[in-house]
Amino acid sequence: MNRGEEVEQVSTQKTCLAEEAAPNLRAAFPGLMSGRVEQTILLLEHDDADIFFFRRALALVGFTGQVRVVSSFGEARDYLEGRGKFSDRRYFPMPAMIVSDLKVPGRTGMEFLQWLQTEMNFKDIPFVMYSGSATGSEAQQAVEGGARAFVQKQLDFAEAITKVREILTYMPPKDSPPDAAR
Questions:
Q1: For residue 161, is it within any domain?
Q2: Residue 79: in which H helix or E strand, if any?
C-alpha cells in the first residue's frame, strides 16, 4: 500500500467514526449539530466561585443555552463588538442577555452598563446586575441606568437558585428581538 492509499484509508476510517459518533453527540449536545442556536448569556464576572455557582444554578433550573464569561469591562466590550479572540460569531454569538457583577477588575459593571446604553447595537440587550456587594443606592442607580433588574447574590445555594430563576425571567423568548423581555 502506498502513502496515498494509507491516507485515504485513514480518512475513510475517521469519517466512519465521526458518522458513528454523531447520534451520541446530538444527544449530548442538543442544538449543536442541528444548526439550532441556543440562547446565550454573557456573564461579566471575575470570581471563579461565583461563575461556578451561577452556571450550576442555571443547570438546575433547566437553562439549556450557553454562558460565555468575560472578566472585565474591556473583554465584555470586545465580546459584543466581535473583536480579537471574540471574532468567531459561531462560538461567541450575540448574547440574548447580559448578567454583570458590580465590582469587576478595572472599570465597574455600572460603567459597563453606562457604555452599553450609549451603543445603538447593544442597548436593547436585557441587562441584569447581579451582585452581592452593592448598596441599596447602587442597586437603584443600576435600574435607573437601564438595567432590567438588580438581583442580590445569595450565600445560600437554594436561595441563589431562586435568584437565577428570577434573572431568567428577563431573558427574551427564543427567536425574538432583544427588547422583547422588557
A1: yes
A2: helix 73-81
As a dihedral over the C-alpha atoms of residue 39, residue 45, residue 50, residue 51, rounded to 10 degrees, the angle is 40
Cα distances (Å, whole numbers) of residue 160 to 55, 98, 143, 157: 11, 17, 20, 5
| Number of domains present in the structure of the chain | 1
44: domain range? 39-174
Q: For residue 98, give the C-alpha cell.
A: 447580559
Give the Cα separation of 45 and 165 in Å (integer): 18
At residue 27, the 3 state secondary structure works out as helix
pTM of the model: 0.76
85-106 tens-digit pLDDT = 999 999 999 999 999 998 888 8
Give dist(CA 143, CA 114) in Å, integer: 11
